[in-house]
Every structure is written in C-alpha cells, then in structure tokens.
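Hi C.,

You asked whether I'd gotten around to modeling the 245-residue construct. I have! Everything is below, sequence then structure, no commentary in between.
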Amino acid sequence: MISTPDLFVAFGKVRDPEKVLAREGRELAASGRELGMQFALIGRGTCAFRLNSPGWFRATPALIAALPDRKGLRLLCRDRIEKIVPAFSAEARRWITLYLDQVEAVAGKAIDPSSNLTDPSDCFFAALLPLPACLVGKLRGGAGNLQIETALDIVRFDLVFWDGCTLVAILFGAENTTTPGKRAAIAALERALAPRLRVRRIENNEDSVSLAAQLAAEIRQVPAPHYGPYRFPELQEPLPMEEES
C-alpha cells in the first residue's frame, strides 16, 4: 500500500460496511494489503484492481491444478465474480457478462508484443476487476484505527472499477431515476474525492456496450505482464495452454 487509505469500497452482499471494516478492512490495512473478499482500501498510489489482484479470488493450488487448462481458470474466475453479485442485481450480472465477454475478445486477439501481454490468459487477468453492489465512502484515521467518515453519506453504486487513478462508479438508469437525496450524496462524495471519482450512467444498450468495450480495451494500456492465478508459486508447472479451436 503506497499511502494511508482514505476511501473504501464494500462490495458484494454487504449491508453494514462498519461490520466488514471491523472483520476485514482493518486487517487489510494492518497487513498493507488493499483488496479482500468484501472490502477494498484505496489511497493515493493504490495500484489498479485487476482480475489477477490478490485477495478477492481464493482458490487452493489443488483446485487450480485440477483444472484442464488456463481457459478453465478463466471460467472459474468468471464464476467467482458472478457469485459476488447479489441475487437481485440481474442488470449488473448481465453487464458483467458483457464486459467479461469483451475482455475475452480483446485477450483472444494478437496483443502488441512490446506490451509483454501475448498469452490469452495473461491478457484476461490483466483486465480491470469489476466490483458489484458497492458501498463507497471516506475513511479517516491511521492504518491501525481506520474509521468510516460519518460527515459524508455512504453511497451505493451498482458497480465500480479502480484503475489506479480513478474510481469509475457505475449506475444503471437515467439521473431522474435516482432520488434527490442520493443525487445530493453522490455530488458531495464527488466533491470530497475529486478528481478520483467519476460516475458513469448506463441508460440504454448503446451505453452498456460502449462502456464495456472501453473498459475492456484498457488491457492494451498495461505495460508489463500481469500473470493470472495460474502462476501461483505453489504450482510446479503452469497450466497448459488451451488447445487452438
């Protein structure tokens, strides 16, 4: 972790971020990690959250070794993301499927060798990690005593991505579908976090496809390898490449 976190994202099936901060967030801060199973800490300099970022995805070396190839690991990864999504968030689930399909499409194409991303699985796991059903708010205090800033409302977003500079927060529906109170809370959070928070709305299918393609294409901006979990040091040999179809 580069600096003391001042922003949190509680994601998935979370109702009370205070409980998750107590259960997971403070442990993350104490260990210098940023991403857990339901909680993420962000400070200035926090690296982008990618599909291969440690913390959110847990699989034993034995489970990974039992997979037939790297494509099997990608499918396992997709399944884990879908399990994070609450049952009532059908729209987010559909969009995540669209986004990951776009990621697969980008990963399956030839990547510029100068990027060091030439293997489909390396490319796939270099993609930004979608965090669904998020509660976002400010933090105060040091690593040993993090607390949620109560002067600002905690805002719920349908999805967020952290790209290393900006928290891209996604809401489904037009602005007039959001209550005045929530619009005011979003505006206050934007002011408090400027310029690190950018709210994006998906109002129609065109918006949906365009944003999914834009975020998936971010893989091409990665300058160095971002190996997936199949590179776990516990494995003596990496999983084999999937056969060409």
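If it helps when you're writing up: The longest strand covers residues 131-140.

Thanks,
B.
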